[in-house]
C-alpha cells in the first residue's frame, strides 16, 4: 500500500523529470516499462544495455523529426527499435501466455485529427506498431484482433514471422516459474497481490529481479506542431483467455490530441483501462486548463494509487513540455529535444 511518503516521493520525481521545449522545436519522449526496477538488482552491463537501446530508439525518432518528418513516422521508428530488442516485452522478447504463445498488442494515435489504430492478440507480426498504423490509415476501423488482424496485415505487406522469432529463453523461464507457482499475474506486472507471501516470492524472482512492466511506448511532437503517441506490448506472462490490457486501447494506454497532449502508458493494464489514464490526462489539460505535470500527477500519483494500480506514463503537450510520471520503483525512460543530447533514466531518483 502506498503511503503519503511514497506519494510525496513520486510527486517530487514527476516535477524533477518535467522539462520544457521551446515552441516550434521537436521533442520525443519514450518508455520501456515501469515496475520494481532497483539499482541493487542491476549489473552495470545490463544497465548500460538498457540505456544504449533507449538512446538508439530515440535517435531513430530524432533523425526523422530533425529532417522535418512527421511525429507519426518518428513514433513508429522509435518503437520498432524496442520491438526488435529482447530487453523489452514487445515484439521480439514478448512474454508467453498460459498456452505458451506470444500474443502482442499495439496502438497508435494521430493528434491532428484523433485518428487511431490498434491491434490485439497478434502472433506473427514482426512490428505490431506498424500494423496498428496500417489499421489507422488504411482501414475503416480502429482495432483489429487475432487472425483478422493478421489477414489484414497480409493485404498491406506487413512482415510476418515464425513464432520462434519472438521467443526468448528468459521469457520462457518466466512462464515456467509462473506455472510452477500457479500464479496468473504477470511476473512483470503484479504489484498489488493481497497475498504477501506470493507477492514477496514474485518480486524476488531471480529470473527477472527488476520485476518490470516491459511495455514500450513513445510520444513525439514534430516541427509542424503535430503530436503522435504509440504503445506496443507482449502483455502479461501466463495470461489466459485472450486477455487484452490497456496498450491497444485508445484512451487507456495511448492518446494524442494536438489541443492538449500525447500519452503512452505502461503498467497494470486493468487499472489503466478502468481509469482511462491516457485520455484522462489530456482531457484534464484541455478542460481544466492545468499543466501536463499537474494532470499526470492527478491521475498516476493520486487516482491510480487510490485504486491500487501500478505503472507510469510518458507524455508531452502541444508546447513541448515533457512529463514522465510513475508510481513504481523505476521506469525505463528518456527524452530528446532539438539541439540537445538524449537523456535516459531508470530509477526513482532520476538516475
CATH class: Alpha Beta
Q: Write down the CATH topology.
A: Glutamine Phosphoribosylpyrophosphate, subunit 1, domain 1
| Rg | 18 Å
Tell me the total number of β-strands. 12
Helix content, binned percent: 25-40%
Q: Which series of helices and strands comes N to C? A: HEHHEEHEHHHEEEEHHHEEEE
Give the SSE map.
Blueprint: H1 4-16, E1 27-35, H2 44-66, H3 71-83, E2 104-110, E3 115-122, H4 128-138, E4 143-145, H5 146-155, H6 169-181, H7 196-203, E5 216-221, E6 227-233, E7 254-256, E8 261-267, H8 269-274, H9 277-288, H10 292-307, E9 311-317, E10 322-326, E11 330-337, E12 343-347
Parallel strand pairs: 3-4
Antiparallel strand pairs: 1-5, 1-11, 2-3, 2-6, 5-6, 7-8, 8-9, 9-10, 11-12
Helix pairs in contact: 1-10, 2-3, 3-4, 9-10
Task: Describe what this molecule looks like in 3D.
The protein has 351 residues and is an alpha+beta fold. The chain has one domain: 4-Layer Sandwich (Glutamine Phosphoribosylpyrophosphate, subunit 1, domain 1). The protein has 10 helices and 12 strands. It has helices spanning 4-16, 44-66, 71-83, 128-138, 146-155, 169-181, 196-203, 269-274, 277-288, 292-307; strands at 27-35, 104-110, 115-122, 143-145, 216-221, 227-233, 254-256, 261-267, 311-317, 322-326, 330-337, 343-347. It has an 8-stranded mixed beta sheet with strand order 4-3-2-6-5-1-11-12. A hairpin with a 4-residue loop joins strand 9 (311-317) and strand 10. It is globular. The two termini are 24 Å apart. The model is unreliable at 1-17 and 183-210 (pLDDT under 50).
Amino acid at each position: 500500500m502506498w503511503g503519503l511518503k511514497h506519494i510525496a516521493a513520486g510527486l517530487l520525481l514527476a516535477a524533477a523529470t518535467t522539462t520544457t521545449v521551446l515552441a516550434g522545436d521537436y521533442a520525443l519522449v519514450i518508455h520501456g516499462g515501469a515496475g520494481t526496477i532497483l539499482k541493487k538488482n542491476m549489473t552495470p552491463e545490463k544497465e548500460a544495455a538498457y540505456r544504449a537501446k533507449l538512446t538508439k530508439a530515440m535517435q531513430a525518432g530524432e533523425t526523422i523529426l530533425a529532417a522535418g518528418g512527421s511525429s507519426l513516422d518518428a513514433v513508429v521508428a522509435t518503437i520498432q527499435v524496442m520491438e526488435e530488442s529482447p530487453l523489452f516485452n514487445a515484439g521480439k522478447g514478448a512474454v508467453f501466455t498460459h498456452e505458451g504463445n506470444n500474443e502482442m498488442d499495439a496502438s497508435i494515435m494521430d493528434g491532428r485529427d484523433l485518428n487511431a489504430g490498434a491491434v490485439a492478440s497478434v502472433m506473427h507480426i514482426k512490428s505490431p506498431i506498424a500494423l496498428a498504423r496500417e489499421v489507422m490509415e488504411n482501414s475503416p476501423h480502429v482495432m483489429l484482433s487475432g487472425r483478422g488482424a493478421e489477414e489484414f496485415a497480409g493485404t498491406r505487406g506487413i512482415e510476418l514471422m515464425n513464432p520462434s522469432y519472438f521467443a526468448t529463453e528468459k521469457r520462457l523461464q518466466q512462464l515456467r516459474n509462473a506455472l510452477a507457482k500457479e500464479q496468473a499475474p504477470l511476473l512483470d506486472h503484479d504489484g498489488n497481490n493481497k497475498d504477501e507471501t506470493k507477492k514477496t516470492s514474485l518480486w524476488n524472482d531471480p529470473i527477472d529481479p527488476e520485476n518490470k512492466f516491459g511495455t514500450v511506448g513513445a510520444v513525439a511532437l514534430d516541427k509542424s506542431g503535430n503530436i503522435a503517441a504509440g504503445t506496443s506490448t507482449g502483455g502479461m506472462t501466463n495470461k489466459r483467455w485472450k486477455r487484452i490490457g490497456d496498450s491497444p486501447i485508445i484512451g487507456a494506454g495511448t492518446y494524442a490530441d494536438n489541443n492538449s497532449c500525447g500519452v503512452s502508458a505502461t503498467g497494470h493494464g486493468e487499472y489503466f483501462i478502468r481509469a482511462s489514464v491516457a485520455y484522462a490526462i489530456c482531457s484534464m489539460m484541455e478542460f481544466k486548463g492545468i499543466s501536463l505535470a499537474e494532470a499526470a500527477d492527478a491521475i498516476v500519483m493520486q487516482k491510480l494509487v487510490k485504486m491500487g494500480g501500478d505503472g507510469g506514463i510518458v507524455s508531452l503537450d502541444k508546447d513541448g513540455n515533457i512529463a514522465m510520471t510513475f508510481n513504481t520503483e523505476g521506469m525505463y525512460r528518456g527524452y530528446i529535444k532539438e539541439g540537445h543530447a538524449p537523456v535516459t533514466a531508470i530509477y526513482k531518483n532520476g538516475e
